[in-house]
């Protein structure tokens, strides 16, 4: 049976703004308070989806969330009509209003961890929504994420959904941004690679000194248990705490994998040799031949990686077995990175081509091509069971583009977030979107 990696990209929501909300994420902090362009952000994302679809890849779309999140503000004690809630928050606690307006659900690599059916004990595709509890503005995503994923992957014969892990720091879980799957073919059993930043209970693991390590070992282990993964099909590795302190807040800022290949920076992990050996031997047991491509710090520094997002790329398999790397424009703007990429693709190795995309609006908040997509490996039968409304087609691309043109503003600053009219605009837009994507009622304003 045929099998595919389907990339579901997060559609940027109408409140996209630069709130400076993510301590430890260099771009988010340095672009704080700048004015954003939600319309351009959404169109940039849609252009990437369309381009990948046109290249023959399976592409889907994941809906944004309801923002401002008035219900979240009510839980924090703001009261009255929806407009009053927003106005009171703007007057008394602007950072809370900004957090409740973040369009951060666009970075769907953080929406969930996904294990394909070939890896799981019950032969279903498993999803665990990420609790994202390191940052308040992201911790409010998972209930709607679960409803949206449930509406996309509704068939219980093929899909199993798990609620987010307990919302405490010991189980900090950032989803697929710290999870990679290696396999010979997408439909065959593979090795799931979980990268954590710290251990909550075991003091032998060092922790970063400056910035938070968002993912814990214990969270990754819980997800592996929930999904029914075999011990032989799982490898855990610790991120190098010193790169977290340099702005690598998720492993997908310093490594990316696909098929049998891991593309990573020399400084990305602790105990790299041991980890590579384990990946290699476990992949061999399921018939795969592990390959690693290490980028030396002498060619690209960690700072270059953080600024260019070289590793926050999509590594995609082409029909001839070679691979294509989708990178953000910022890679072309960094001389060392660009030079490295020229050498890489010219060297006759597995990565043969680089394609560049302008995702500046998302990049300025620390979200590159890989952050914007959730990978779901599916066989033909499972793909046929996905809600067809969320699979990208030329007509869907047209409708979504027109929908963005109709509803999105082209400039947003903090002051705009305090405008109660924005809430009405967003709800109107999202109501229409759930019809376009055939999701049914998934947003709080639709179900309460
Ligand atoms: O969680 N930025 C996101 C970026 C997530 C990137 N995802 C992956 N690497 N997979 C974050 O830090 C910034 C929002 C603001 O500051 O307005 C933000 O949430």
UniProtKB/TrEMBL annotation:
Substrate binds at residues 19-28, 110, 137-138, 214, 252, 365. It catalyses: N(2)-succinyl-L-arginine + 2 H2O + 2 H(+) = N(2)-succinyl-L-ornithine + 2 NH4(+) + CO2. It comes from the Bacteria. The active site is at residues 174, 250, 371. Keywords: Arginine metabolism, Hydrolase. Pathway: Amino-acid degradation; L-arginine degradation via AST pathway; L-glutamate and succinate from L-arginine: step 2/5. It is an enzyme of class 3 (hydrolase). Its EC number is 3.5.3.23. GO terms for molecular function: N-succinylarginine dihydrolase activity. It holds the Pfam family AstB. GO terms for biological process: L-arginine catabolic process to L-glutamate; L-arginine catabolic process to succinate. Belongs to the succinylarginine dihydrolase family. Homodimer. NCBIfam families: arg_catab_astB (TIGR03241), PRK13281.1 (NF009789). Catalyzes the hydrolysis of N(2)-succinylarginine into N(2)-succinylornithine, ammonia and CO(2). This is N-succinylarginine dihydrolase. It comes from Pseudomonas zanjanensis.
